[in-house]
Design a protein that fits this description.
By secondary structure, this protein is of the alpha+beta class. It has two domains: about 120 residues, no CATH class; about 60 residues, no CATH class. It is built from four helices and eleven strands; from the N terminus they run ββββαβββββαββαα. It is elongated. GO terms for molecular function: nuclear import signal receptor activity. Belongs to the OPI10 family.
């Protein structure tokens, strides 16, 4: 049905690496795959295998779960999008980590399920979050630049009329000089 690859960490794995929960749900226990270093696994490629086709209104949704946290949606593949490289922004471990001496420690998991395409949010949630973070960082950079040139008139900030041009020129020059500069905005 599907396969996964963890870039720079694994060979392609098929559905047999996952535990099947029921007809439409599979779980990969990260403890058996990578031990406690699950948070270092930052990406996953999921793909439909050639001989399997989903109905056009269905998707294979991917979720991640840190020990004790809820599942977090990361993205999905469909017939129209048969493969995807998804970021894995592991949630902080949850409050269920208080264990008794007899309890088995919880581990991180990756869940895959067949779901209605219409019920899913954007197919690549982490890409949207990355764009949102980048926009916020660029906006913060602009605000800080404007603030260094502004005056106060009552409850209003007063800035020079060419402030956006000056900021944009400085932003472009810095990006040309330092290729790593823009990568800092995308984190």
């Amino acid at each position: 049905m599907f396969g996964v690859v963890f870039p720079n960490r694994s060979f392609p794995m098929d559905i047999s690496s996952f535990s099947q929960i029921d007809t439409f749900h599979w779980i990969l226990d990260m403890k058996t795959f990578v031990g406690e270093a699950y948070a270092q696994v930052r990406e996953m490629c999921i793909f439909l295998l050639n001989n399997f086709t989903l109905p056009p209104d269905k998707a294979l949704a991917v979720y991640i779960q840190s020990p004790g946290s809820s599942f977090f949606f990361c993205g999905a593949v469909t017939v129209a999008r048969p493969s995807a490289v998804l970021s894995l922004p592991w949630p902080a471990p949850g409050g269920e980590l208080q264990l008794t001496a007899d309890a088995v420690p919880l581990s991180a998991k990756i869940g895959v399920s067949v779901e209605d395409l219409a019920s899913l949010p954007s197919l690549d949630v982490t890409a949207e979050k990355r764009i949102e973070r980048m926009a916020m960082k660029v906006g913060e950079n602009l605000f800080n630049f404007m603030q260094s040139f502004c005056g106060v008139d009552g409850s209003k900030l007063v800035v020079p009329t060419d402030i956006l041009d000056r900021w944009f020129n400085k932003f472009q020059e810095r990006a040309k000089r330092d290729p790593e500069y823009l990568k800092g905005f995308a984190l």
